[in-house]
Queue: 4 jobs
Job 1
Amino acid sequence: MLSLLIGLLLVACSSASSVPAATAVTGARTVPDREVVIAVSRDLANGPQDPWFCHSSCNVWEPLVGLDEGLQPRPVLAERWELSEDGRTWTFTLRSGVRFSDGTPFDADVVVKNLERMIKISPRPSPYTALDINVGYGGIPKVTRLDATTVAFESEKPNPTMVSTMSNFFSAMYSPASFAENGDFTGPPVATGPFKIVEWQAGQFLRLERNENYWGEKAKIRQLRLRTILDANARVSALQAGEIDGVAELGALFPAQAAQLQGRPGLTVGADPISRSQYLAFNSGRAPFNDVRLRRAVLLALDRKALVDSVVFGYALPGDSLIAPYSKAWYSPRGSVRPDLVEARRLAQEALGGRTVEAVLPFNTSPGQAIPYKETAEYLQALLRPLGIELRLQGMENAALTDAINRGEYDLRFTSLGWVNGDPDFIFNTFMRSTAPFNTTAKGGYNNPEVDRLIAEGKVERDPRKRYAIYERLQEIAAQEAPVIVLYYERQPYAYRDTISGLRHRINFQPTFDQIVLLK
Amino acid sequence: MARYLLSRLVALIPTLIVLSLVTFLLTTAARGDPALLALQQAGEIPSDETLARYRQQLGLDQPFAVRYVRWLAGVVQGDLGKSFLSTRLGERIAPTLVLGLTALALSSIVGIALGTLFALHRGTWLDCGGRVLTLVLASTPSFCLAIGLVLVFGELLHWLPVAGYGLDEHLILPSIALAIGPAASLMRLTRARLLEELGQDYIRTATAKGLRGRVILVRHALRNAAIPLVSLIGLRFAHIFAGAVIIESVFSWPGMGSVLLTAISGRDLPVIGGYVLLAGLIFIVVNLVIDLSYVVLDPRVRVYQAAGR
């Protein structure tokens, strides 16, 4: 009798654990309707004080203007836009029939309230993108509702690039009901994206659910959990232990890890181009790299294909022009440079006269770096020694490094830049304008009046052909004077198990959570 | 006893004030401008104008004394200070305490039990083998143990979750990783102290009286061996707390440790100050509990106190 009872109990237990809680029938196969779990490397929500609450990667909020895969403005919540004759006023026509996840309508009043809040709380830091109204709108715009689906943004000065600079984060739209009096959020915000936030535990997870009111193609899965696993090895362990379905988003899978996981049974490993690049920057304000010949010698000595193969296992596109080739609208081959070791040695010999100079290259050693700074630094050390440049490598913790850079205590340094808005002004304004913080606060020290003039002209030029000519010339100057060298355009590796499919990255490193299909 | 407790609690206040002042001084002396670091988190370098406006928002343009007093006033009201990076330290206290106390309990039980076992089987293969094993475990850094545990029980056997928070099986691996080191040293001390006590005359007397072995062991030998053991447990708690910073990051345990790492690299002064203050408070309370336990364990301390105060 007892053994019978135990037997029954065992049967009951085992069947309880093997039967899924709920099932959904898709076509002929039965797939469990369960929560999909993706591990990310950082908290993708940062709380009520953050200007955006959560990263665009969450697929929760949407902007008025997004970017397509060539980093050109793409209609999202705004359907079309138009610039006035004087170049000061942009008029946006909003997509009609859009509702927030709570069912309330999205209209012109909502846009006005969102902009009012943004203006009120700027500047506000964020680990994703700092909110600075000057960066997004070139000053404080006057925002007016023209009718229920039309809004006008008026700037003090002509502002033809605004539709690019406001793209993505800077035109993120939330339900005004989510704003507290002081401009913080009252809790997880209500927005219009394919997912909505159900629960958020800082440092642990963000639980999302499909937005059934979504205006576009609805997400294919119902429940998604984004788990924050800070340690890179722990993310891979969790994947291999079957605790999670996949690993994605910026920095989630390191190139070395992807190379290691490649070909493992039951795993799909890949990498997608993202709009962030890694650069080598010079301190052009002091010897030895105030000499343009020596900067160009470094540029010519560098075989970026070999660098990419050795330090990131091929998980990147080798650098070329300051403008990445995926930006078909702005890339020019005139900015590209082929490696030429003979010419590099000649230039270095000319500049140094056979002497050997010492140069300091500090790099970040804070834990959790997805970028192999140390390996890259060692690669450069070996590369530059024959030119007569002896690199002194200085590993530093993040805050100390930032401080050292702002004091100008470097000759070479690494920097990265996410090309957030796809406009070429963003790149040249960041790196080459003599009064840019990169050259003043961070002591880059590059100064070329012709460049400053071209940047000022390019910012307000409305004729696309003339504008292209300006940025082509700037790419050319960048290749000749090398104030900064692009090492590689990043690709973000990802991996997932055979339980799901459809996980990729868009160019703004937003994972395609809305495209995930649950297989088992 | 009540007066003793009260005087100890009052003595806490100056300790905490000094602790907070030193912390605040150190974080201010460290290189790096917190406002600039906060704005530069995503890589953009802010303009001077934006930076100045943000420094003002944070109150960083105020003199040191003003900032310190403001922060302290907040602390007294239970507000550890608004993080520059919008981290909320308060939410992270419970996970760290849960992990630390579980590891402490685990290491105490296992350490004392094994120490007793080895002492009773002194010189046998069990004793020798066990001591070698614990020596190896005690000298292995906790993060190595953690990685080993993840490999074996997570990736290889799929028995236990390797990352995440929960008061269920998620707690097992991190608390074991934290507990092994302290358990091993506690085992060694328990064994040594018990062997010493078991050789004393009073044990022989007790045996001669015909007391049972278990009574002798628990009521006499262990009790007399207890004071240094309790001291060691108190000391070990400090190690466990410090080790948690690393173990938390290996197991993605959302405690104070992982927050501290982010706060340090971003010079998030209110959070660093809050962490040190909380950690200091926890230490002081643990030490107080241990001091009080002497009173319970050792009659001589009670007599001394009754005579002295």
Job 2
Amino acid sequence: LIRGVGLAARMGMLGLLCAHFALTVAYLAPPSPLKARVQPLLDATVGTYFEQNWSLFAPSPRSSDVALLARPLTATEVADLSRRGLPQEGWYDLSGPLYTAFEGNRLSAYERLSRPQYRAILAYFAGDPSLAAWQESCARGDPTSCGIYEQRVDLGRARARELLTHISSAFYHDIARPGDTVTHVALRARDGVRILWSQRETSARTTRDIDLGVYPVDPSVRPAGLYRLLEGTR
Amino acid sequence: MTRWGWWGWLATAPRQRSGLRVLQGAIGAMLLFRMALEARYALYLWGPNGLGLGSTQPVLGPTLGGMADRLFTMDASTLAVVVVLVISALCLLLGWHTQWASVFALVAFSLIDARLPELIDRGDTAARLMLFYLLLTLPFRSAPAPSSVVVWIHNLGVLAIAMQAMTLYAIAGLMKAAGPEWYEGTALYYISQVESLSLPALRGIFRDPFVTTAASYFTVLYEALFPIAMLSRLRLTWIAVGVAFHVGIGVFLGIISFSIVMIAIDLFFLTDAEYAWIAIRARLGWTALRRRLVSLARRVPGPARAG
């Protein structure tokens, strides 16, 4: 009897392992009608306790850097926004100096420190790259995929706004001078336009700026201790 | 494989012990590397009123998750999490109390991951999953009774690590195969144009049609075929190529922590007999080298004495 129980326990453990990897593969598989049906189960198991995403530069690799620009605004400038729009002068590049510093020293944290900015910008526009499969399936006309995609984009965007508020406040507290009357920070993404393979010898990199909105300075957010170095990069 | 096939492989003796030790050490090294660079920004990243907005409550529930989240409401407890991670990483690297070290490293690493998930990369995800599966495995020098339950559980841990690694590679390869740039063979050119990642000296190389096409197709084929290679005679070739591939990623893209973990995952697939063979060869090579150096030193004339 003891031998039988031992054997059953061993088989049970092996069965659990197989079930775990069946769920993992289903979680990572491209959208399908079957996957849409079991999505709540996948989210509650692998998605919660063994979250993973292996879209390493896939399906489409990124081909340029996205930089976060910030412009501290006084209460007067905020009041004038509807009439005059965002100022053209006085923008700070929060990402470029991190990229340059990382290029100068690969054994540094600068690239990793730039990730929250980059990921927040991505989430603000289109959600996480892991949603690409749902987006494609939605574009092909599957309403279930559209529902899942839109729900996740909304969640990601709400979180991105919160993160951008923290990033911009941390930045401002770093560079604030006594007597400053800044109440908000305007944010902008500077996206490097992809140079197509066929134009690689003839085109030069251009950029386009996309406004991300105006965020109140949160006085409780801790200074970054990172952007004092950027004083000269305006 | 024994005469009982896969059942015997799982039941009789603990497998991949050297590979597991390499994996433990590499995860410890990766965590230490990360903390050496990031600890000075710990309060900005994870501390109270820092960038971190995440919570462990979706995983741990409101009670336990609430308690875990409270760790990040004070500077001292935030730094304590980092200290626990550093100590457990050091233990993993040096092979001290590796089971407890895996538990503490997993808890501390999961806490900071959940606090600011925007900071992590796929290497961190792989390390977190591997740390969990490492909990099932035996310490390096333990000697369990043959065919005991602990041997079975250890080998299930080994199997879990192998299956996770194969899933990781296969999914990464298949997702690339679905991307037009990978299909057209220009993907590596586009990645090389990301200035924050790629080395300036090597950007020009990927403008060459042969280099970018070969490298793009190689990446897709290597990853997608990894599970098949691990179960075939191509295993050793695939491991050697994988190590070189990830060294290249570390140097070219600068994603060093990711490369450390992936190299260890590749090396995990070497058997204990292969590690023993490598150890013997290394010892013989070292002895021969030492002998040659000694004989060279004897041949060099000493300084002439004056007078």
Job 3
Amino acid sequence: MLETKTPVQFTGKAGEYFGIWIVNLLLSIITLGIYSAWAKVRRLKYFYNNTLIDGVGFDYHAKPIAILKGRIIAFLLFVTYTVLSKFSPLMGGLLLVGLFLLTPWLIVRSMLFNARNTSHRGLRFDFSGKTGKAAVVFLAYPLLVLVTLGLALPFVSQRSNKFLLENHQFGLSHFQSKALVKDFYMIYLKLLGIIFCAILFFIVLGVVFSNAALGDWVTNTLSPKNLMQSIFKYGIWFFVVVAGVALFYAGMILSISAYIKSRTTNLIWNHTHIEHVSFVSSQRMRDLVFLNLTNMLAIIFTFGLAAPWVHIRMARYKAEHLALTGETDWDKFVGEKKESARAFGGEMVDMFDMDISFG
Amino acid sequence: MQFEADYYDGISPRAKRVRVTVTDQRMFGRSSNTQDDSEVYTSDNAFDDVFDVPLTDCHVQAKLGSGRRLIDLPEGHRLETDFQDLEQLLPAKTSHGFWRVVHYAETHLIVIVLALIGTLAVSLALLKYGVPIAAKYAALATPELIEKDLGKQTLEVLDHEKLGYFQTSKLTADKQTHIQNALVAMCKKTQTCPIYDLNFRSSKAIGANAFALPGGYMVITDKLVALADNDDEITAVLAHELGHVKLRHALRQTLQGTISGLIIVAITGDISSIAAGLPALMVNMSYTRELETEADTYALQSLNTACIAAKSFSTILSKLSQSYGEGMNLPEIISSHPDTKSRMIPFEKDQRSCT
């Protein structure tokens, strides 16, 4: 049977969003941040409304007042911490530890808030994760990463993604995640292999390089004792070398994060299904490297004015590299009639306005 | 007035095509048979209302971009329509006016440009005038112990042999005491000196220089002492540095960097710390000038009160800029100021009579 593929479309336009962004920004600045809650709702609505499946968009229903309350609480906590740590570093530390222990609860509340305020075709999403389980996933497992010196990282990545995904509901239907721990380990193993080969390559290169006359110059220049003198002696060349090394490292970090991001996203979506619908994600590392690099340059050279364009093109990339497979027979989904689910947004507080996403 | 819309009942994800009619009091929709696949259409339910609600219970979402218009109905029901001009049909609510202005601004180039200029002006004003004031009060609120620790650590790092930045001073103990005493004598007369800790160092890296670290740590290099023809010139330079200490400039500089960084991140939308860091650095450079002027003012007052020739300051300043020429690595006291000459003017004025 040939599977039908339904693409996710994104119809947001940078020019249009620029107007929304700049007006949001101006109103937020002149109201000293109060409008930022309304700005967030308007921004998310624009992105949700313009993300379409089968020609129908998503919607975001959060009440700005709920977001504002959350931001005020977060701000007050920040001020309390600053003042407290001035008078008594111990109390400040205790507050910080307390907040840290609260993170699982905050994550669950925030997922719940975002899910229940998101709808598609009139059906709300929902989140049913429990704080206890979240504490295991977001407090205990990260400790495991520390204890095992990072060896448990793929395992923890799988568990946290599974927790977030499988607790999400669309209407009454649950998302199912079938990505296995060993799939996550494969991603990181491949990465290690590539890095190992790269290091080997540079060691060989380094041996050749240091035999040349230039090699002596580099070793002499970069020894700590001569560092200051060298700066004055070689001036501009010193900075060229330093800039070269810095660029190399930046490129490495950019590539590695793009690799992990793209592979993890693909792995998760390709093993996710809800009812009879599966997903196909086709993000590529080189695309992400190119996007992140050009985004960064655009932001720097326009002094931040390119931000709307950056947001739009990232949203478009993510949407266009995700598709639904299987029959999109919408009749199999059913919405929830429960009043509690509907009345939620009004009185709940989006505590810390956290943005947690898969991947 | 009527328009076509997609109706969702919150239970089934399938849209019902409806023709919506708006009257004075109510809004109701009847299934329309314009779509081919509406096989449910029979004569029985052709004119049944799919929904019928009072207008006051309908919430028309504000227009956003060029997308479909959305209407929230009671009990989680909703309408999506391509019909844009809903405001024409519905009684005006006060909130509609605000959102219409917002939407007008968002979609009109001239308003966008004005908003852009407004945003830039407001944020620049915030960075230029708001941040220094905030940093000033934040510095005053910082415990002196923390500031002293910060300065001590910085000096220890600079003193570290591996770095090779500072060497021990080759000035005689007599000369050092002499300079210290001259400064103490000035402070006795002015009565405005902060607590300070003057250190002598020699440095190949920075040549003739003097600067103030957080917590009252001041450093003067041997070359600067050698450059001066008399004690007054050294005292004048140290009076300027004392100004930095008194007004806690080193700490304020650090705090300004942090605060302006935060603001810039907020404005550019926390995209990347690297991208946000760069403008922060550029803004930070311009603060130094104002701080230099403040330190100059303090130095001038001190010198005048202590009856030390204020001209000594401009003399040593011109010697310093001559010894460095146009090259890089200007010492703190003359760098980040484009116009050394205009700085000297207040110091060259005739002093009031001293006895």
Job 4
Amino acid sequence: VTGLLLLNLLFLLAGTGLLWGLRGWTAWTEPIELLGVAYLLGLAAVCVAATVVLSLGGGLSTGVVLVLTLGTAAAGVAIGAARRRPVPRTLGSWSISMSPAALAAAGLALLTAVLLAAFARAAYHAPVGAWDAWAFWLPKAKGIYYYGGLDEQLLRALPGGSYPLLVPALDAMDFRFIGSADSTLLGLQYWLMFAGFVFAVAGLLRRLVSPALVWLFLAVAAVLPEVDHRLLQLMADWPLDIFFAVAALALVLWLRTGESWLLGIYGVSLAATLATKREGQLLAVCLVVGALAAVALRRCRAAIPILAVALAAYVVNVPWRIWWTSRDLASDVPDKGIAHFTSDTSRIWPGLRLVLELLFNYHLWLIPVPLAIAAALLGLVSRTREVSILYLVTTALAIVGFAWVIWSDPSLPISTKPSLTPIPRAVGAIALLSIVLAPLLVQPLLSEEASTEPREVRSRTSAKWSRRRAAARRAEG
Amino acid sequence: MEEARRAVSDPETRAVSRRRGRRLVASVLVAATAVTLVLRLPDAFRGFDDQAVKNAVGGAQGRLLATADSIDVDNDFVLAAVNTLPPTATYTLQLPPNADVAASSYGIGALTISALPGYMRFMLLPRRDVAPEKAEYVLCYACDTSPWDHKTSWLWKNDHAVVIGKVNGS
């Protein structure tokens, strides 16, 4: 376990350096508040870089991992120095209040921490159970670990040989630092990623949404039946959903605040989304189109950075595409091709119904999806129009996209059984997107009556958050 | 005068009542989320506890063989293969001629037959699964051993027609 924790500390170090390069710190409280963001950013950046190293013929030895992590941190520091990012000069302060809202927030944060601690016990030494995990995700990781890089013979023998590499690369780095290919310790890696996600969302939303609301939804995230059931299955679905949700949240926050460091988070998370699973391509397109729809009416110029960063996120994944296409590995699109929309029209409605049935299943996802949709619909006629449009368009496109996956491939049965179809896992991305955007969608509705502030400042305690945002902008230079 | 004032205030009143309506709906949504959380908590904690207990049962070997149990693979065979084949070995896995024979003669289910090659590859890496003619070791899971008998030294076997051998001269 020590080795695994050491590797994750290196991810944190890499992300901290990168985050300082992107935004700088004015007080020591800032890096603590953004600890989860730094960790996920470092993990995503290093793992994407690792997939590039593998695609270029390299391996993931301890030395290479150290170069990747420390190099990422150093690159962040170099960017920060070049852009004259501020270093913390004050300790900063946390205003401790005894108001009911503050006590509720503290209670919910504590509850989430207790849930995560219980989850950690479940993650420790969890055996490998899921078919896809032992059939190809873990063999790929073992191959990288044992053979010192990508092994063409092994990849040809495995199902899904052309699937993206981020999760096998991460698992292989874990094996390297653990000192053996002990897959029963990988549950902790997935748990760390989820805990990092929880604190990253809390950190990103801290200035815009009431903490009680944020921690309410994060506590719900920790008890989602599908999170508890599938996170430890060591497959790529939850890492994909986590990266996608963070990319979407960073993009939404950039649209709200205009703080450019959030584009960096969006870009790295989107690159990781694309590097994690084939569905990442679908989700990335849905998110980008959703964001373009959101800015289409009032500020078309915002489309340029959205598209440019998405393009950069795609480009870093090109080496892997070249690797597997040049070796004629099986394609990563449905058997009949990506444009085959109407192979069997009789499957369109059943496919769509299946996705909706799974997405709105209370026993899988509780209520964040219908709740976020309701809040977004209300937001269309209030002051959160951009966030609402982005969420609704992204969700609608993802639903149609997942339905297309089902209807375009006759070999996939129209079934809700997880062993027969990937859709129960795939819709997790929409559920997690709903969780992270729900606080942003609900908060303005709750504070609507009392608020008379300008458009960007939309929460009841906006003065405090405005001060913090101004400080962040100053830090950004 | 009164009518004119009402004409001005009505749109504002409507806007205020719409905002109040949205606020009410949002409050209901938050309350529903809180109730959902409370209702889910006992099951969530129970699930975490059950998983932690499950992880501890059987120790390291139990965890290693959890998947074998789930797909009904002979545990002894898996352990023997892991212990017998050196890390650099090549091997071939031989199965019953078809699922009917596997089921009727040996009581081996179709799930086991379909899962076994991938599962053994996962368990035996870095050992390589190769074509039969290139294999140094043969793992026979209720297979027909006659093509191998004359060129194989059988190293391990059990009562369930499962054997492991080293191909002579390889």
